[in-house]
Amino acid sequence: MNKLLLLNVLINLEEKKKLNFKKFNPDIKGIHCDSRKISKNFIFVAAKGENNDGHKYIGDAIKKGAIFIVIEKKELEKNLKEKKINFIYTKNSKFFLSRIVANFYVNQPNYISAVTGTNGKTSVAFIANEIWKNCNIKSAFIGTLGLISEKYKKKLELTTENSVEIHKILSILYKKKINNICCEASSHGLDQYRLDGIKLDVAAFTNISQDHFDYHGNFKNYFNSKMRLFLKILKKNGIAIINSDLPETKKILNLCKKSRIKTFTYGYNSTDLKLITYYEQNNSQKIIINHKNKIFSYTIPMIGNFQVYNSLCAICLVYFSGIPIVKCLKAIQNISQIPGRLENIRIPKKMKKKISIFIDYAHTPDALKKSLQTLKKNSFKLSIVFGCGGDRDKKKRPLMGKIANSLADKIYITDDNPRYESAKKIRKEIISHCPKAIEIKSRYLAIKTAINNCEEGENLLIAGKGHEDYQIIGKKIYKFSDKNTVLKLLKNI
């Protein structure tokens, strides 16, 4: 375990001037914002969250051995002084936490990249890690699918973990000599300073569309949170990798230019890694590109134009780690299937009718539209099973219903992590713009009905949960996997 004097943990911070280090400069054994994870000689950072307030747990943290408290509620100062508890007041506890954690876990891998965007983050980071792996280079993926490396795997609670966990993970990877990292950067994580303090070499922007407005309020705030990755976290000499074909591309490039950030683009409109064309062949895609006036081609074992863009982005991330473009293109052709990202489920040979079933994480209007458009191109008929999460952006529910109604032939509306909201109400909000939909409360029955009703040559998309293996209803978390459900049902056919 790391062990540093408090002075060294607080180094270069303005707030430390309030402390008398001659009288108080103890050894610090750890830092956390979760009182449940506090031990003796820890710093406890009390931060206000969306649903909870860390200041309520200061007493618990002290009982567990916290030797130092960080607060952002001025009114608590008097009480802490009276109890002779050492503390610092700061205006932003989450930002403060990211800075002191970076001083505590000082060692980080040599090359750290991050990718943000509404859709594609998981695919890009996963593909990048696969390229490195196929080049026999030690690497790691950090994001929605957890922490994935060749010899070290761990489940994570969030797409972008809190700053303590992120820095702890990076420190462990450093010790294991895993020096090529790609992590997902969510808008929540960026807005809450979870990646601040990371020595970020390269940052990528995939795309942006409506999502998380329940948290950010509007598109402007949502966009600005994404841009923090480039304007506030990326190294001064770092590289910003941008999709050249977005409506927002010009704005993103201008903001980077103002901040003197080097940029590199990919896509049809790019002058750096130019997409010339692509075409599907069976369950793969051949992609032709231009890089430094040389024409290259490669194949990816995935369908969907969005995966073309994700592959280009991943290639850029790996390229700037020092891998030649030719080597990147050779390595990408043997990547594994991405869990829950338009994942094609193998149909048993004994099944009389030929159908195709896909599991996808699509939970935004844009992602759902792209997945449906991809599957509609090569199918006689198209069915979909999906729902919308509770306690999340309500505005996207009718939009997703409308998209499904326009692109799918058969629609089954069901539950998808209703949380504390009325599941019936959520389904109603989707169906209000999806009149041809069949409503089936049970996700298991919805999937079973959809499979049984599939006709010869039909594509079935089960969307929303992807890799997830749970269903959240109220306080309870039930074990449930779309993929495992499909495999079980197909076994009994």
Task: Give a topology summary.
Blueprint: E1 4-5, H1 6-9, E2 27-28, E3 30-32, E4 42-45, H2 58-63, E5 66-71, H3 77-82, E6 87-89, H4 93-104, E7 111-116, H5 121-134, E8 139-143, E9 146-149, E10 153-154, H6 163-175, E11 180-184, H7 187-191, E12 200-205, H8 213-216, H9 219-233, E13 234-243, H10 249-258, E14 262-267, E15 273-281, E16 284-291, E17 294-300, H11 305-319, H12 325-332, E18 343-345, E19 356-360, H13 365-377, E20 381-386, H14 396-407, E21 410-413, H15 423-431, E22 438-439, H16 443-453, E23 458-463, E24 470-473, E25 476-479, H17 482-491
Parallel strand pairs: 3-4, 4-5, 5-6, 7-11, 7-12, 8-11, 12-13, 13-14, 14-15, 19-23, 20-21, 20-23, 21-22
Antiparallel strand pairs: 1-2, 8-9, 9-10, 15-16, 16-17, 18-19, 24-25
Helix pairs in contact: 5-11, 5-12, 11-12, 13-14, 14-15, 16-17
Question: Would you kindly provide a written description of the structure presented here, covering whatever features stand out?
Answer:
α14 crosses α15 (423-431) and α16 (443-453) crosses α17 (482-491). The protein is 34% helix and 25% strand. The protein folds into 3 domains: 4-101, MurE/MurF, N-terminal domain (Udp-n-acetylmuramoylalanyl-d-glutamate--2,6- Diaminopimelate Ligase, Chain: A, domain 1); 105-332, Mur-like, catalytic domain (UDP-N-acetylmuramoyl-L-alanine:D-glutamate ligase); 343-491, Protein-Tyrosine Phosphatase, Chain A, CATH 3.90.190.20. The protein has 493 residues and is an alpha/beta fold. The strands form 5 sheets. Strands 10-9-8-11-7-12-13-14-15-16-17 form an 11-stranded mixed β-sheet, with helices on both faces. Strands 18-19-23-20-21-22 form a 6-stranded mixed β-sheet, sandwiched between helices. The chain has a 4-stranded parallel β-sheet with strand order 3-4-5-6.
